[in-house]
């Protein structure tokens, strides 16, 4: 599985990905609001939103820069998941959302993709210099909590979220400090 930046040629697969969640009555997470854009606008407008989210100099507050990727199975090119990586945190994300949101399409669950997705997203955070990564899930989502723990997550707190109207678990994952120079050599 690899992380792939969304492009215009992914349009039909992206729509199919979101529609599968609706068919299964499953909540969509970590899509960088793709589901909302498809309901109210177009895939192309969503791509523009993603581009703007990376334009740090012109990003209005309280928005934060983020990266959204499709998680593509290399054998057949199928989108099996999505991940949204927030490169900074505003107050809401610090308290309720965290750095990473991800999802696995319903027909691809229980195949280890969640752990692969989160692990690769943690690699992006590490390259961006984020050393403590916050990841949240609802308390009832045992599969997501398991994925987070598999990737080193330690439960920090549990609380009721007025926004999500459910009990949320916030985990912290501490990434190693590389302590090297620009070429990765130890100092």
Main attributes?
alpha+beta; Aminopeptidase; four-stranded antiparallel beta sheet; three-stranded antiparallel beta sheet
Fold and architecture overview:
The chain has 187 residues and is an alpha+beta fold. The chain has a domain of 129 residues: Gcn5-related N-acetyltransferase (GNAT) (Aminopeptidase, 3-Layer(aba) Sandwich), CATH 3.40.630.30. The protein contains 6 helices and 7 strands. The strands form 2 sheets. It has a 4-stranded antiparallel sheet with strand order 1-2-3-4, sandwiched between helices. Strands 5-7-6 form a 3-stranded antiparallel sheet, with helices on both faces. The longest helix is centred in the middle third of the chain and has 15 residues. The N and C termini lie far apart (33 Å).
Topology of helices and strands:
Blueprint lengths: L1 E3 L6 H13 L10 H7 L2 H11 L12 E7 L6 E8 L4 H7 L2 E5 L8 H15 L4 E7 L3 H9 L3 E8 L4 E9 L13
Antiparallel strand pairs: 1-2, 2-3, 3-4, 5-7, 6-7
Please report the distance between the alpha carbons of the first and last residues.
Answer: 33 Å
CATH topology of the domain at 2-130: Aminopeptidase
Helix content range of the residues, please? Answer: 25-40%
Mean pLDDT: 94
Structural class from helices and strands?
Answer: alpha+beta
Q: Uncertain runs with pLDDT below 50, 5 residues or more? A: 181-187
Helices and strands, in order, run as EHHHEEHEHEHEE
The fourth-level CATH homologous superfamily of the domain at 2-130 is: Gcn5-related N-acetyltransferase (GNAT)
């Amino acid at each position: 599985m690899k992380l792939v930046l969304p492009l215009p040629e992914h349009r039909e697969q992206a729509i199919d990905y979101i529609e599968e969640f609706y068919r299964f009555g499953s909540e969509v997470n970590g899509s960088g609001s793709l589901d909302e854009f498809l309901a109210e606008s177009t895939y192309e407008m969503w791509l523009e939103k993603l581009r703007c989210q990376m334009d740090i100099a012109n990003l209005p507050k309280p928005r934060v820069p983020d990266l959204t990727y499709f998680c593509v199975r290399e054998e057949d090119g199928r989108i099996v998941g999505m991940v949204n990586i927030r490169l900074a945190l505003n107050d809401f994300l610090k308290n309720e959302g965290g750095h990473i949101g991800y999802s696995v399409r319903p027909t691809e669950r229980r195949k280890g993709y969640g752990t692969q997705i989160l692990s690769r997203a943690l690699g992006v955070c590490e390259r961006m210099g984020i050393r403590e990564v916050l990841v949240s899930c609802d308390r009832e989502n045992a599969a997501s909590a398991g994925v987070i723990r598999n990737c080193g997550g330690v439960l920090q707190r549990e609380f009721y979220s007025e926004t999500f109207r459910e009990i949320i678990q916030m985990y912290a994952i501490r990434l190693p400090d590389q302590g090297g120079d620009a070429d990765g050599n130890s100092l």
